[in-house]
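User: quick one, sequence for these tokens?
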């Protein structure tokens, strides 16, 4: 199973990763990649560089960032491979522990749909 872990942060608070955090995160990413439990990960650029597109009953609209009404934003993500939600949560806990007491960060973990299997069912 695949899981999406959205890393939620407070934007524009001036928080910058320390050298220690970057080094520890690099080690963790290497470990998870070697074990095959981390499929992809990245940080995201600030909302000031983003765009929201919306379809409201057929009417498309666009909102350019920054998105000031948002207190917390998705600052990064990880796509994990795990046998259960419990295992995905343990992997995410390891990620959060690397941050130590330097950061106030949370992750939302959700199982991803298997689109190949779901689309195959619809075609049958």
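Assistant:
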């Amino acid at each position: 199973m695949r899981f999406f872990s959205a890393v939620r942060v407070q934007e524009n608070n001036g928080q910058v990763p320390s050298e220690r955090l970057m080094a520890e995160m690099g080690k963790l990413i290497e470990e998870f990649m070697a074990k095959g439990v981390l499929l992809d990960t990245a940080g995201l650029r600030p909302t000031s560089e983003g765009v929201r597109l919306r379809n409201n009953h057929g009417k498309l609209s666009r909102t350019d960032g920054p998105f000031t009404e948002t207190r917390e934003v998705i600052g990064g993500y990880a796509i994990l491979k795990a046998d259960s939600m419990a295992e995905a949560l343990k992997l995410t806990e390891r990620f959060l522990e690397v941050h130590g007491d330097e950061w106030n960060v949370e992750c939302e973990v959700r199982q991803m749909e298997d689109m190949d299997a779901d689309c195959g069912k619809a075609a049958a």
